[in-house]
Amino acid sequence: MAMASTYDVLLSRLQAAFDVVEVGADPVLRTSDRGDYQANGVMALAKRVGRSPREVAVEVMGHADLEGVAAVEVAGPGFLNLALSPGFLSQQLTAQRADERLGVAASPTARTVVIDYSAPNVAKEMHVGHLRSTVIGDALARMYRFAGHRVIARNHVGDWGTPFGMLIEHLLDLGEDEAVASLSIGDLDGFYRAARVKFDADDTFKERSRARVVLLQSGDVETRRLWRILVDESIAYFDLVYAKLDITLTVADIVGESYYNDMLDDVVRDLGAQGLLVESGGALCVFPPGFTNRDGEPLPLIVQKRDEGYGYAASDLAAVRDRVGTLHADEMLYVVGTPQAQHLEMVYAVARLADWLPQSVRCEHVTFGNVLGPDRKMFKTRSGETVKLVTLLDEAVERASASLAERDSDLDEDARRHLATQIARAAIKFADLSTERQHDYVFDLDRMIAFEGDTGPYLQYAHARVRSIFRRLGEQWSVGPITFGLDAPEERRLALGLLAFPEAFQMSLAALQPHRLCVYLFDLAQRFTAFYDACPVLSSEGPLRDERLALCDLTARTLNLGLSVLGIDAPEQM
User: Fold this and answer.
1) Could you say which of 84, 199, 400, 556 would form a disulfide bridge with 466 (CB–CB 3.0 to 4.6 Å)?
2) Which residues sit opposite 31 in a β-bridge?
3) With contact defined as beta carbons under 8 Å apart, do 563 and 425 qualify?
4) Which residue has the higher pLDDT, 320 or 573?
5) 143: number of Cβ within 10 Å
6) CATH fold group of domain 456-564
7) Torsion over CA of 139, 445, 126 and 130, rounded to 10 degrees?
């Protein structure tokens, strides 16, 4: 059974005291530099009950079970600063050492969570624009799995629609063997551009392409076979890119637009049967309440176009129905760029109007900012083209390999290449995840690959540095129960940081903000550095040495686990 985290123990004790004043009042408990923890909920509570904050604070203190709290101070207009006793800290550290999950309890009720992320287009290169959806979505998937939930990943690739007419005709012009060879080496952009050039310049090719779309959509067997070649070759290439970045998406997670194609007539029929469809300009639309254009006129969600074709809205509505009705989702997260915000909100609103999306199902658009170049503009190549994702990954590995070579490590070529790949992934993922996701960030490989500062490689190095202490011991270290005295302030500060891991993880997950866990890990690494500089470890003796080694071991385990749930490796040596 997992331990009760320090945060949860304190929160339950304070909650009981706050409930005496008002049932359900939130203590707003947080870690604090002014005490070990601070309860900030007194002022809001006092305002609701019409009493002075200090009076309420004193009453809460009078009712609280303060076992394990050495001192409480009422600060300012009613903040409660809590200082924990050494005995309680020692007890919690001992429990955390014995817990493989380091105090993070698995959810008692596993939820089914569908996470929609990455979503490249068939026959188009994965580029830097896919980076954030892929990295953030995969981190959230890992975090939800660690928390004990059932995650169903959905890679909603663009594998349907009018461009496939020209792509299939271009494939036929090249010949299947040559087309497959071009696609299998990853020249997706070259293939797509050549098809587009012919489509724009050659009217005969354009007519063939349009006729081919009709065949594709009507289920022509040969056309579907040719379409499958394009899809399969593209997916195989996407899989290579995911492997380079250590992304957990698999071929089985790819559920593209084509999957929902046979469901679209039902979407229109059922919306019509409920009286939600309105004809507008020849198109069939739903006007969900609360959405207007710049002139204040109601804004339509176009479900079926004037030519009776379907757009994104229809397939997105079909996806909602499938994820709720077939997959039984309790939560649905869409890790999709901010420009899609209004579209997705309208899809959710229409799905709720149609009773396809119950209020009990959490449905959230996980937005994110852009990746910028060093000039703080959208990240492009010098020729103005979008940067291929695989190019970024390969360049990061080369930079990391060169950096390792400069450090005179005694690794052989294969080991150095493997470590360089781990460092490159950490550099790219941590730079993305450590930025509050709604904000833009600058893609600067020199800074990202550095072993100092707020970077992935710095945290990897911090972990390896802790592990090196145990290698220098020259013997297997194992010790039974330890009483943590925490006499040095740096020891105590490190201990408090270690005990805050469950809280950091849970709050990061609850807010869908991986950067909060990144901030915690960076702070922990800095606390360890201050501890290591001030408190000799290997040169200390007896129980003190074991106590400090135990703090080192717990630090390494926490960094390792924290990085792993973000999708970042923590090498033993660097």
Assistant:
1) 556
2) 37
3) no
4) 320
5) 21
6) Isoleucyl-tRNA Synthetase; Domain 1 (1.10.730)
7) 40
